[in-house]
Give the backbone structure.
Amino acid sequence: MAPRWTQPWSPSMADEIKAVADYEKDLPIWLEKDAVVKQKIAVVIPDSLFITLLSKMTTKEYYDTLKAQFESWSLIVGVELRRQLGEMKLKENGGV
């Protein structure tokens, strides 16, 4: 089946032309700021965690990946702390 659109889109209305021009003007600034934030993230996290970010292209992808990682870690840490608390109680009371 042939694609519905055979020609690429190009702006034709004044507001579309302005939007494209604004985008082209702002893109280098956005890319620079995105690179700065990614670099700041890279220097404060351990290398083992940074490895998970190497395939990510944007700061948003960095954020989403780190958020998912830390959310899963917080569950694991919570379970481990509860286990340790239970062991401490058993040692103090000497019984179940």
